[in-house]
Design a protein that fits this description.
Blueprint lengths: L23 H20 L12 H6 L11 H11 L22 H13 L9 H17 L6 E5 L2 H17 L3 H4 L6 E6 L4 H9 L7 E4 L9 H13 L3 E8 L11 H11 L2 E5 L24 E5 L11 E5 L2 H8 L33 H35 L4 E3 L7 E6 L4 H13 L6 E5 L2 E7 L7 H20 L4
Parallel strand pairs: 2-3, 2-4, 4-5, 5-6
Antiparallel strand pairs: 1-7, 6-7, 8-9, 9-11, 10-11
Helix pairs in contact: 4-12, 5-12, 6-8, 6-11, 12-14, 13-14
The structure holds pyridoxal-5'-phosphate (PLP).
């Protein structure tokens, strides 16, 4: 009997065509080495540079032609250690403040390995990984305060989740015919604050509605959408023959972490007959900390919410989520299967509805496992404490900036994002400071534009970040300021 057919002989020889090793022991040793290296890297992550630029010889290595014959995995892994591992984004590091990127965890890393080992396709059929995803969606709904009947799907991130929400809202507004006929001449319009993430406009573009159909409404001083301006714009558009159909509230704006008046938006949408969607990409996880929940009042009335596990929940990239009040809407938006994917009463074809009926992807990886293992391992309360920790550090940083005459706080700190400027410095100075800190590996800040001026932006998201890391932002920025602004004048 062929060795590949019998477990008993599988270790002795591999069949022609199989990619399994002819001899497992060496690969097993290499696998253990990889795991040890990963743990070592994580344990020591604080000690290295946050980020370092790739040297020319590393970039050049990426121009190699397609290899026609294989290499020893030991050599392939050596290349990974030399060419990839040292040149990551840096978001595992405690002094990465550039963007709202989660820091990841060892448990998430292991879960990712287990998911790859199982290699489940989560587009459909009746198997446990889909139950894991359903469980994760129910937990997500519970975090948001949605009713039990709510449903959802794990997706690559909030960009995709916002896109799914736009398609669901479009289907709800125009009925099933839109799936065959498109929107025709109907001019559907969407409303969001000026602080909304750019992926909302992109979702409208991808849905065939055009990014210009997004009306960006002014914000108040706290960065929250002006409800009166929104109501005015709705009336103007209706009078001009447009068909308003969707309002996107922001719960944690990308630049400053502002949270719209979600209860006010819910009421307005109810009265105006509009789909109410909330982009809570990172904000949603702040609901894990009980005292913050009141700031999100109204989110539980939304028709849909998009958010990420890979940001504040620290799940390794990528994992986002769409939660909808009425899962039937997702089915009405996406379900349509050819015969070869037909449901059956038993066997693998059972288990309705399949994820492919609720979203745009057929083949889907087992993203839910790393979310499930993260929530099981830490529990919602400990994950909420990480959010609280980050927000406390953000307030500490804001307070230090406020009492430092060389620095200027430029926006209120609603959650975990602190925007500031070096006083008296022009836009190039702010950019120069961010670049210098990145290139020296000391810390990673980003820049954005607020009120027409370039500002430095620190997003505190990483569970590894400590008070000393946040204090170092101020001392590092002052050091560079002295080099860029003071020394040249001498
Ligand atoms: C408010 C907001 N919405 C949407 C996104 C996009 O999320 P993702 O990168 O997971 O697609 C982000 C990313 O930072 C965000 O902050």
């Amino acid at each position: 009997m062929d060795g590949h057919l019998t477990g008993a002989h599988a270790g002795e020889r591999s069949c022609a065509g199989s990619l399994d090793p002819a001899e497992w022991r060496a690969l097993r040793i290499l696998g253990h080495q990889m795991l040890d290296d990963l743990f070592d890297d994580l344990e020591a992550v604080r000690e290295g540079p946050v980020w370092q630029p790739m040297p020319d010889e590393v970039r050049t290595a990426w121009q190699a032609p397609l290899p026609h014959s294989g290499a020893d995995p030991v050599d392939v892994y050596a290349d990974y250690r030399r060419l990839v591992a040292p040149y990551g984004v840096g978001n595992r590091h405690s002094r990465f403040f550039g963007w709202v990127h989660g820091g990841g965890t060892a448990i998430g890393m292991l879960a990712e390995m287990l998911a790859a080992g199982l290699n489940a396709n989560c587009g459909g059929r009746d198997h446990a990984p889909i139950e894991v995803e359903r469980q994760v969606a129910r937990w997500a709904a519970e975090i948001l305060g949605f009713p039990k009947e709510a449903g959802g799907l794990v997706l690559s991130g909030t960009s995709m989740a916002n896109f799914v929400a736009v398609l669901a809202a479009r289907r709800a507004a125009l009925g099933g015919a839109v799936r065959e006929d498109g929107v025709g001449g109907t001019r559907l319009t969407t409303y969001a604050s000026e602080g909304a993430h750019m992926c909302v406009a992109r979702a409208l573009d991808m849905a065939g509605l055009g990014s210009a159909s997004l009306r960006l409404i002014a914000c108040d001083d706290a960065g929250r959408i002006e409800l009166a301006d929104l109501a005015g714009r709705l009336a103007t558009d209706r009078a001009a023959g447009m068909r308003p159909f969707l309002v996107v509230g922001t719960a944690g704006s990308v630049d400053i972490g502002a949270i719209d008046d979600l209860a006010g938006l819910a009421e307005l949408c109810r009265e105006a007959g509009l789909w109410f969607h909330v982009d809570a990409a990172f904000g949603a996880m702040a609901m894990l900390w009980e005292p913050f929940r009141s700031g999100f009042r109204g989110i539980e009335q939304a028709d849909s919410v998009a958010f990420d596990f890979h940001k504040w929940m620290q799940v390794p990239y990528d994992a986002g989520c769409i939660v909808v009040r009425d899962p039937a809407v997702l089915q009405a938006t996406f379900a349509r299967r050819p015969d070869y994917l037909r449901s059956t009463p038993g066997g693998l074809g059972a288990g309705e509805p399949w994820p492919v009926d609720l979203g745009p992807e057929l083949s889907r990886g087992f993203r839910a496992l790393k979310v499930w293992m993260t929530i099981r391992t830490y529990g919602a309360d400990r994950l909420g404490a990480v959010v609280k920790h980050c927000c406390t550090l953000a307030q500490r940083l804001a307070a230090t900036i406020a009492r430092t005459p060389e620095l200027e706080l430029v926006a209120p700190v609603a959650l975990n994002i602190v925007c500031f400027r070096v006083a008296g410095g022009d836009d190039a100075t702010q950019e120069g400071i961010a670049s210098w800190l990145q290139e020296t590996g000391r810390s990673v800040l980003s820049t954005t534009t607020l009120g027409g001026r370039c500002v430095l932006r620190a997003a505190i998201v990483n569970h590894r970040t400590r008070a000393a890391d946040v204090d170092a932002i101020v001392s590092d920025v002052l050091d560079v300021r002295n080099v860029l602004m003071v020394m040249p004048r001498r």
